[in-house]
Write a structure and sequence with these properties.
Thiol Ester Dehydrase, Chain A
Length: 150
């Protein structure tokens, strides 16, 4: 079983490799999501929405907001270099995302053990909270970083 200290040591030792994996996530790149911060169990990212990301009411489509929240959730839960797979999410849309405003999201680890991790995510449109998410991952024993010398 990997301890909290071992997780943090893996994060520090393989930080550049973990960031590289997260920054090269294909769907996030397709949407234009930019990782702005990655810490042990935390992540932040931004997205400047394009016109094709609007819904019929002229505000940011909920799927775009969800995708940004899901991305920081993935980055935070994989920040230790260990493969984590989402098993549940619950999203609450609080207000509309406004076109012309940058969307920003943060994920914070609330609790984890060797098999599960629970995260809280906030998404903002400018300074306005537009969505919250609670999410859980299954933490596999597989590491996606070279940990043979760890």
């Amino acid at each position: 079983m990997v301890t909290k200290l071992e997780d943090h040591a893996l994060h520090e030792k393989h930080y550049d490799q973990i960031v590289n994996v997260m920054k090269n996530e294909p769907y996030a790149n397709f949407l234009g999501i930019k990782l702005t911060n990655l810490g042990p169990g935390t992540a932040s990212a931004e997205l400047t929405p394009d016109e094709h990301m609007l819904n019929a009411h002229g505000t940011i489509h909920g799927g775009i907001i969800f995708s940004l929240a899901d991305y920081v959730f993935a980055a935070a839960s994989n920040s230790y270099g260990r493969t984590a797979m989402g098993i549940t999410t619950n999203v609450n849309f609080m207000s509309a995302g406004i076109f012309g405003q940058t969307l920003s999201a943060t994920a914070v680890e609330v609790k984890k053990n060797h098999k599960l991790g629970w995260y809280k995510i906030h998404v903002y449109s400018g300074d306005e909270l537009c969505a919250t998410m609670e999410a859980m991952v299954y933490r596999k024993s597989h590491s996606f970083v070279d940990s043979t010398d760890s």
